[in-house]
Design a protein that fits this description.
By secondary structure, the protein is of the alpha+beta class. It contains ten helices and 29 strands. It folds into three domains: 10-174, no CATH class; 194-290, Sandwich (Immunoglobulin-like), CATH 2.60.40; 305-517, TIM Barrel, CATH 3.20.20. The protein is 26% helix and 25% strand. The chain binds zinc ion (ZN).
């Protein structure tokens, strides 16, 4: 179990639900089965209560290690593979299918099966758009619907709001559903007013009532750290970030009111949109004349994208299989070692060989415990003793750290800062200039994730001038991998080839990458 279970932040979810039950498509991830703890494979399914036409289907899962979702239609042989996933940030991934997957009519009995690195999980049969899935434990078949929060609400939502919200949404633009989704997926490409120094992507969704709105702001070379909506001549409302979006309930802003979106990024740069009409203009443009670049001497957006290859848990194949490929491409990885494993399994030699070949020596603790369950004294032992051992036996400075399972809290972070210069999490997404080096995002290169998918992520890093950190574990010479902790050597080489061929992308160690994005607060 190498992946931290991601649990939906109930407080945030509640905010959206209070604003409006069918607040948006993406935030409906919050209506998934959040409190499931008994299934080792549990992905936590949820279906959106809103925004589904008869030909359109969308599901969310809350475990970012889930790599595919299949939909079975009862009494048919039909199995729909949901091919597209959308990284919502903070470890949440949404899977959805488009019109080509349909039609699946409202009320049709369907069942979901997810595949993750831990195996598969299946829901009960439930009525599409009018019922809620309950995850069934794949191991024992016992239901774990215990604290599920979706069922009643979704039923209510569907009964009442489908009539109103969906009626509106469907009437205005069922095709707009896809248009909106595609626009969001495309990131900053559609923004005519963007500059090369900072190009936030602004979008107002179609899924807003006259008293509610949702905005999307996606980074381009930098990460917005605050976004607000100004009513011209009136109040300015701060928006909150969650699930990859900046949103807020704007109960008192009338449709058609003149508004301006403002944003500030981690480097201190600011940007704003031209004045637009709230809920009337759906995709405001950046006002090119109102962009203020960072004035900081150290906090400028990265000139190029970066990639780091990181490898966890001290598998000897990192030296025997991965290192020769990296040598061929002249690339260096960061190796997060478990020092007890080096000692116990006699794997010290491969760790030393990697260090001698120029790969960075990083720590992944002594024992690979979940650090949030340790006393502070034991945290310090895991942090300090592993570092001391690595410096003495493998290499220095050993100042990059990764938490086991990506599990951490504020206390763990405080202790990490006493010993290390950076901390890699398993929260998905790019890092940018000014991002916290103690909560670095990384993306798992699991056996079931294709090189093509990962390659697209590398191209995004170059395009948005962000820093992509990939996390590998063990390697195999087999032609395919049936284990998410195993990556095939051939696929690994495909990724390195992609990195080499991606213009504007540098491969760096985590130590060097952290130095590159570290800057004094503007
Ligand atoms: Zn690990």
């Amino acid at each position: 179990m190498f992946i931290k279970r991601i649990t939906i932040a109930a407080v945030v979810v509640a905010t959206f639900i209070l604003v409006v039950a069918c607040s948006s498509r993406t935030e409906d991830t919050g209506q998934s089965v959040a409190a499931v703890t008994t299934c080792p494979n549990d992905p936590g399914f949820g279906t959106s209560g809103c925004y589904q036409g008869d030909w359109w289907i969308e599901f969310s899962v809350t475990d970012h290690s889930v790599t595919s979702i299949k939909v079975e239609v009862q009494n048919t042989t039909r199995v729909v593979d949901l091919p597209d996933s959308w990284d919502l940030g903070d470890g949440h991934v949404k899977f959805y299918g488009g019109p080509n997957d349909g039609p699946v009519s409202s009320g049709t009995m369907i069942r979901l099966t997810s595949t993750s690195k831990n195996g598969t999980a299946t829901t009960n049969w439930f009525a599409y758009m009018t019922g809620s899935p309950v995850v069934t434990c794949g191991d024992g078949g016992s239901s774990d619907s215990g604290a599920m929060d979706a069922g009643v609400k979704d039923a209510t939502v569907d009964a009442t709001v489908d009539v109103t919200v969906d009626a509106t949404a469907d009437a205005t633009a069922d095709s707009g559903v896809e248009a909106g989704k595609d626009a969001a997926k495309e990131g900053g490409t559609s923004d005519g007013g963007a500059t090369t120094s900072w190009s936030p992507y602004w979008q107002q969704t179609q899924y807003a009532g006259s008293w509610w709105a949702e905005f999307t702001v996606q980074g381009g070379g930098s990460l917005p750290v605050s976004v607000s909506l100004e009513v011209v001549g009136g109040t300015t409302y701060p928006l909150a970030y969650s699930y990859g979006k900046w949103t807020s309930g704007l109960n008192y802003v009338a449709s058609g009111a003149n508004v301006i979106l403002h944003a500030k990024d981690a480097t201190g740069a600011t940007a704003q949109t031209a004045t637009f009409q709230y809920l009337v203009n759906q995709a405001p443009l950046t006002d090119a004349s109102k962009i203020t670049p960072s004035t900081s001497s150290t906090c400028q957006p990265l000139a190029r994208g970066m990639l780091s290859l990181t490898m966890d848990d001290s598998y000897p194949s990192q030296w025997t299989l991965a290192a020769p490929v990296m040598a061929k491409y002249g690339m260096k990885a960061t190796i997060y070692n478990i020092t007890h494993t080096l000692y116990d399994y006699g794997w010290l030699g491969s760790a030393q060989s990697l260090a001698n070949a120029g790969h960075e020596v990083g720590s992944h603790t002594v024992d690979h415990f979940d650090m949030t369950g340790l006393t502070v004294a034991n945290m310090d032992y895991e942090l300090g003793t592993s570092q001391t051992y690595l410096k003495a036996n493998v290499g220095s400075p050993a100042d990059s750290f990764a938490t086991p399972m990506g599990s951490y809290n504020a206390t763990v972070l405080t202790e990490i800062k006493k010993y290390y210069a950076s901390h890699r999490t398993v929260n998905a997404g790019l890092n940018y200039m000014g991002s916290s080096v103690y909560e670095l995002n990384s993306d798992g290169a699991y056996g079931s994730i294709t090189p093509a998918t990962i390659c697209a992520g590398l191209q995004d890093a170059a395009k948005y001038r962000g820093w992509r950190i990939l996390m590998f574990h063990d390697f195999t010479t087999a032609s395919t991998s049936n284990n998410d902790l195993l990556y095939t050597v051939a696929d690994f080489e495909s990724i390195l080839k992609c990195a080499q061929q991606t213009a504007g992308l540098d491969v760096v160690t985590v130590h060097d990458g952290a130095n590159a994005i570290r800057c004094a607060s503007p």
